[in-house]
Amino acid sequence: MSVEPLKSALSIGNVDDTSLALPSGPHGRSGQQRVLEQVQTIRRSRSKKSSSSSSRSASMSLSPTSPPYDSIFSEALKSPTSPTNGFLFFSKSITQEKNAVVGSKKTASSTHLYSSGHAALGQTLNGRGVSDQRSAPPQRLPSNLSAHRASVNGTGRSHADGRVPADQVDGAKAPPESPVNGAPKTQAASGGAADITMKEAVEYLSHQDETYQHCGASYIQHNAFIDDKAKEEVLRLNGIHPLVALLRGSSPRVSQTASAALRNLSFRSDGNKERVHRSGGVTEAAALLRDADSAETQKQLTGLLWNLSSVDSLKPDLLKSALPVLMERVILPYTTGPDRTGSQDQDEVFFNATGCLRNLSSTKQSNRQALRKCPGLVDSLVAHVRERVDAGTPDDKSVENCVCTLHNLTFQLEAEAPALFSRIAALAQDANRGPPGKADAGPIGCFGPQSKPPGHERRFDFPVVEDPQPSGAGWLIHSKTMQSYLSVLETSQREETQEACCGALQNLTAQDSTVSSVMSHTIVQKLNGLRVICPLVKSEKVNIQKSAVALLGNLTKNPNLTNAIARKALPNLLDVLSAGTEKGNESDDTLAMACQTSNGLLMNQPEMGKRLLNNKLIDSLKDLSQIGYLPKSSKAAALLLRNMWSEKDLQSALKKQGMSKASFVNDITAAALKPT
Questions:
Q1: pLDDT tens-place string over residues 262-292
Q2: Which of 186, 183, 167 is nearest to 218 (CA)?
Q3: CA separation for the pair 224, 630 (Å, rounded)
């Protein structure tokens, strides 16, 4: 029986939706000043009209200087009672400001997705972002219960606006979308509703007057934030193409507002994302990002790119056009530049950019390969995680995106990037060949391939050959990176970040190979990782517990580590099984993997396991073996019971506690031996 693939992808939940991006004006002018100027401009233009401003023609023949509307948008004034993400409507006169409604920040549950796929126990990928994106593919772990260990096939996921890619992991959450600062819904109460329609707003976008363009883009930006139907209306009115055209306009203010409007329109709307792409939006956004000096504009553009990155069909163009610009203008300056402690706006830009990377790192091998080969990308992500760990801020929101991206890039790494392991493979080959006349010499070193029986392998010590100064994808397998994962696991409170770290370690240890044995040995022996991993087996967070149990299952595939793992992990694993489902733990995968991993450890270290056996554990396993709605767990528990009795040392200990054969050898345990 094979266990369902283990989802190691992370999901982002309850991410603050900074959603409507408000236009920002030149330095030194407050939101109120900008509004006053716009009001005065509009009034001056209106005074030039020969006809009354109230006579709006049905044909919409507008004066180039006098748009027929009475309300405009502006940033809320920053005061103790006015949220920084607020949005004010000034209607008719600026004196109505006191009656304007200040917008509040929304929170949206966003999730990240990894592209799907199977990975050996522990192989996983993740990604997320604040835009509607996807994260790397999650890794699954198909495991053969009778083999005393589970192997997980890794998969990558990418941030998605709530959906998992085609080759995704079961149960993976969709990644979040890029939020934009937004306005509130309740302008009507203060009489502040803009006196134009969406049709008029779309028509303003093609007006020669920048005031009209800005008004139309602002109206669309605001309404796309408060009402999903507005997104559909803009699409129906063909408003996306002119917004994309405004990205290359001469007015920085209009370009910024258009960026924010497109960001809101593309939030969780695949149709709008695809229309943005068909209108050249990826190319135009990348070009504007390359030249933009305004942090606010960069924030909206990276948020837009994050949203677009959740659609698989758009990823090739994003990798080609946007990735180089993201690296040049955001990732490298933020992680390696002179001002590595960025402002709040720069932090947001970096967060959006890493959310985009998280989505791009999923789904296809070609996407992951492109990111692994991108100069400076892996180095920057690893450096940021290590820097945040050293600073004691592992819960920085960008850390999650970085770790999820790294998680995805470790998916099927041994198969997709074999050159990274050439030194290990060469030394393993030499060690296994051995000197002439000593083919039967005992094993040396600390590990070796699993294909030969013990006593007929020569092993080498990987730390001797580890690159002291890795670069690029070499960081994905380096002990310093694995140490960062363990440090985040130990100190972070963010479940998604912890799950991504576990997933990356799972991916690196997922195969029945020398490479996975090397990675396992590094985690257990060099980094003392069991000190961090074992307590997570009893975590109350379901996904963390599942990932930790799966990771232990991967580590036990190295027979040279079973003693250390049994000593530190077996008590926690058996405690989980003793509790069974009584504490609400009804994760079929987790309980099945706990049975499977415990089975392997007890068979390899029976002396160590004898003192841990008791009636509560056996009764719990008997109950679990009879639970029909947990098919994998019931079969794994039955196999564990049967194998306990078949091991003479364990059988002796069980008999001393008054237990009988009937509890271990019966129709249920016999049925578990039959192939499915």
A1: 999 999 999 999 999 999 999 999 999 999 9
A2: 183
A3: 45
On the CB side of 329, how many CA atoms lie within 13 Å of its CA? 24
Tokens at residue 150, please? 């589970």
DSSP label at residue 425:
H
Q: Are 140 and 118 contacting, i.e. CB atoms less than 8 angstroms apart?
A: yes
- Strand 112-114 and strand 143-144: the pairing is unpaired
Residue 442 phi, psi dihedral angles, 5° rounding: -70, 165
> CA 609, 610, 611 angle in degrees (round to 5)?
95
Please state the pTM of the whole predicted model. 0.74
436 vs 430: CA distance, rounded Å: 12
Q: Given this model, what pLDDT does residue 462 score?
A: 52
> Helices 377-390 and 397-409, interaxial angle, to 10°?
140
Q: 3-class DSSP state for residue 73? A: strand
Lookup result for tokens 């054969």: 661
Q: Could you please report the per-residue DSSP string of 120-157?
A: STT-------SSS---PPPPB--EEGGGTEE--B---E
Residue 459, both tokens: 């092993």
* DSSP strand pairing (106-108 vs 15-17): antiparallel
Compute the distance between CA of residue 660 and CA of residue 665 in angstroms, rounded to an integer: 9
Instruction: Determine the Cα–Cα distance for residues 302 and 359; give it in Å rounded to an integer.
Output: 13
Average per-residue pLDDT in the chain? 73
pLDDT in tens, 175-210: 345 545 443 333 322 233 458 999 999 999 999 999
How far apart are the C-alpha atoms of 233 and 256, rounded to whole Å?
A: 22
Looking at the predicted structure, is the pLDDT value of residue 592 above 90?
Answer: yes
CB 672 within 8 A of CB 642: yes
Q: Does the pLDDT value for residue 456 go beyond 70? A: no
Q: What domains does the chain contain, in order, with CATH numbers?
A: 535-676 (1.25.10)
The dihedrals phi and psi of 408, each to the nearest 5 degrees, come to: -65, -35
Tokens 């009764």 belong to 619
- 420-435 burial, b at 16+ Cβ within 10 Å, e below that, comes to bbeebeebbeebbeee
User: Between β-strands 149-150 and 143-144, what pairing exists: parallel, antiparallel or unpaired?
Assistant: antiparallel
CA–CA gap between residue 407 and residue 400 (Å, rounded): 10
What is the gyration radius of the CA atoms in the chain, in angstroms? Answer: 29
**Which residue in this structure is represented by tokens 């790119």?**
305
